[in-house]
Amino acid sequence: MSPSFRVVVAVLIARRSTRTAGLTALAASVTSALIAKALRDRLRRPRPGARAEGGFPSRHSAASVAIAVAVASQHRRAGQALGGAAIFGMAARVAAAEHEPADVIAGAALGWAIATTVACALPRWSSIA
Question: Do 122 and 27 form a contact (C-beta atoms < 8 A)?
């Protein structure tokens, strides 16, 4: 997850009115990134650049899309803004030859699926929000 998305999640958690969205985003992004890393380590598909570690699926894409989807489930406009930032970030990863397009698409799909599942499966955090 990029530093800017970390700050957004921290701010969401710190504010009482957005705490539920922040906690959901945190759970979805961490879960997405961990699953993406496990898949990447197992599949070992090489990246286009010089980095030795695999690139499929992209952890950055998984985490950023998970955050955007989790936030959008409770705050539509904020989620849309984060979705735009996630798309920009994914395009930048491809342009910088850090990932192939399929890497970021697979990461985005994983992040979307995890965020949707987390938003449905977790309690609404009402006791702490």
Answer: yes
End-to-end CA distance of the chain: 24
Side-chain half-sphere of 127: how many Cα atoms within 13 Å?
Answer: 2
> 127 pLDDT band (50/70/90 cuts)?
very low
Could you give the CA distance from residue 77 to residue 115 in angstroms, rounded to a whole number?
Answer: 17
Tell me how far apart the alpha carbons of residues 9 and 6 are, in angstroms, rounded to a whole number. Answer: 5
Token pair recorded at residue 96: 């910088």
**Per-residue pLDDT tens over the stretch 75-96:** 899 999 999 999 999 999 899 8
CA angle at residue 7 from 5 to 13, to 5 degrees?
A: 105
pLDDT of residue 28: 92
Q: Which two tokens stand for residue 14?
A: 């710190």
- pTM summary value: 0.86
